[in-house]
From TrEMBL:
Entry keyword set: DNA-binding, Transcription, Transcription regulation
Binding region for DNA: 27-46
Protein name, as recorded: AcrR family transcriptional regulator
Start and end residues of each HTH tetR-type domain: 4-64
Gene Ontology MF terms in the entry: DNA-binding transcription factor activity; transcription cis-regulatory region binding
């Protein structure tokens, strides 16, 4: 096993466990077992638990940044362009549900002793998206709160889903629930940003 593949196995296992159990709930031993390695090998590749968490969050950020930069680069200055950007974000979260889960855990006070991840990662992505969308819709709308609303709704849907009439949870892996969620989110964003005629 090469160093890179060992590190990636560890990061993959740690990402899953931090997303499912949180930083505070996932031990280094559990991560090592999930990666099929021993604790010494984990320490060799990534250091201690804090170093591992920081590496997981950095990798998650780089993936999200790459996706958002590509989506913003394709943004056309019209309502359809804004809604395509929204769809790309939802698609990213569906493809990488562990990333919304990591942030939701953090926002619920997980890893509270690790400061400034929001300042390091979240702020720059918010500025990227709000700047791009703000250039399309104008200054009379609170674009930042609309973008935050999208983040909160999407992360909540990815992590918890919605309850159907029978009380069963429908999540992102349910195609009908995803279609309904996406349609609702598009209408909500179009209304909040005053994108006239954008959604039928």
């Amino acid at each position: 096993m090469t160093s890179d593949s060992g590190r990636e196995r560890i990061l993959d296992a740690a990402t899953r466990l931090f997303a499912d159990l949180g930083y505070d709930g996932a031990s280094t031993r559990l991560i090592a077992e999930a990666a099929g390695l021993n604790i010494a090998t984990v320490a060799y590749h990534v250091g201690g638990k804090r170093d591992l968490y920081l590496a997981v969050m950095e990798r998650a950020h780089q993936r999200e940044r790459s996706a958002l930069e590509a989506a913003v680069a394709e943004l056309t200055p019209d309502a359809d362009g804004v809604l395509r950007l929204l769809d790309r974000y939802v698609d990213f979260c569906v493809a990488h549900p562990e990333i919304p889960a990591l942030w939701m855990r953090r926002w619920l006070s997980d890893a509270a002793d690790i400061a400034d991840l929001e300042g390091r990662y979240v702020r720059s992505l918010m500025d990227l998206v709000t700047g791009a969308v703000g250039g399309v819709v104008g200054g009379e709308v609170d674009v930042e709160y609309v973008v935050w609303s999208v983040v909160w709704c999407t992360h909540g849907f990815c992590r918890g889903g919605v309850l159907d009439s029978a009380g069963r949870r429908r999540r992102i892996d349910d195609p009908a629930a995803l279609i309904r969620f996406r349609s609702h989110l598009r209408r909500m964003v179009a209304a909040a940003l005053r994108l006239d005629g954008a959604v039928e």
